[in-house]
Amino acid sequence: METLFNTEINKNLNQAEFEALLQEFKTDYNQTHFVRNKEFKEAADKLEGPLRQIFVEFLERSCTAEFSGFLLYKELGRRLKKTNPVVAEIFSLMSRDEARHAGFLNKGLSDFNLALDLGFLTKARKYTFFQTQIYLLCYILV
User: Which of 30, 56, 80, 101 could form a disulfide with 88 if both were Cys (CB 3.0 to 4.6 A apart)?
Assistant: First the structure.
């Protein structure tokens, strides 16, 4: 990972593009994108039976996935601070966004009188680290 984003080793990096991307993340366009309002709560109250269960499972899985992304991006940001501070900050801001998404979904679960203990995931789970290049390729393709 450090090799991939090292400007001395990887001469093909376009640092100007990373700078532009960093400015986009700093602008934080989606800061108010996720809003839980009265309509959101009323919609949750109307869901019943199997549809309700499927939606709850969707919220749980999505929340866990977003929180996992938060952990991954936070770690990438930490590891790249010395190698490429600009890319490190991008990952840190991506981490911020993923945490925001996980928080929104977890609050959505509260409309169903449920909540995930996301802190438990960081303590009780063993982590598997994949080659960064593979993960980034998958992220770009999605």
Answer: 80
Please write the tens of the pLDDT for every residue from 51-82. Answer: 999 999 999 999 999 999 999 999 999 999 99
Q: What is the pLDDT of residues 83-136, one digit of tens each?
A: 999 999 999 999 999 999 999 999 999 988 898 888 876 775 565 555 555 455
Q: Residue 15 in contact with residue 85, Cβ under 8 Å?
A: no
- Residue 14 and residue 63: Cα distance in Å, rounded? 33
Q: Return all residues near 84 (Cβ < 8 A) that are at least 6 apart.
A: 5, 6, 7, 13, 18
Decide: helix, strand or coil at residue 116: coil
Q: What is the pTM of this model?
A: 0.79
Cβ contacts of residue 60 below 8 Å, gap of 6+?
109, 114, 116
- The torsion of the CA quartet 47, 142, 76, 34, rounded to 10 degrees, works out to -30
